[in-house]
Amino acid sequence: MTEKEKMLAGELYRAGDPELVADRRRAQELLRNYNVTTLADGRRRREILGRLLGGYGESVAIRAPFYCDYGYNIVLGRDVFLNFGCVLLDVCRIEIGDGTQIGPQVQIYAADHPRDPEARRQGLENGRPVTVGRNVWIGGQAILLPGITVGDDAVIGAGSVVTKDVPACATVVGNPARPVR
Predict the structure, then answer these.
(1) What pTM was estimated for this model as a whole?
(2) 83/90 Cα distance (integer angstroms)
(3) Where is the Maltose/galactoside acetyltransferase domain (predicted)?
(4) 25, 46, 113, 120: which one is catalytic?
């Protein structure tokens, strides 16, 4: 397997692989172009997102600045909204369902690192996909850790750190995020 194939499969891989470095450079160039646009540049924004993202539905709105590793592992449904300064570390797939609204400076991490110190010393990394359901509301500065699934209609409070899956229709807050009763 190539390092890219390992990365996409969630296995240990070397991020310094030339193919992955080239993919990140490509994403950085597209992000630089996107992040200088304004709302008046709607057509240009759609063109850039079409080249950057793995897929996106109608009426997606991403306020600049926006940051990601590769872009091609991000799939956004219809009417998804990302506010200013969101970071999606997409070494594995990040999928966000229709109608989800994401506050400013939210961070979604599919990128992870091995717990074994020797593997880290060897420069190995890994990732786990993140799935966010439909009609979810994620408050500003929340963080979703690798491997998380958020069910439809859930709410994640501002500043929360989501370390475990969130069931459909649940509201979670805090660090670590816990259900509100």
Answers:
(1) 0.96
(2) 18
(3) 4-58
(4) 113
Q: Is 113 a catalytic residue?
A: yes
Residue 10: how many CB atoms within 10 A of its CB?
18
Q: What is the mean pLDDT of each run of 10 residues along the chain (181 residues)?
A: 97 97 98 96 96 97 98 98 98 98 98 95 96 98 98 98 98 97 77
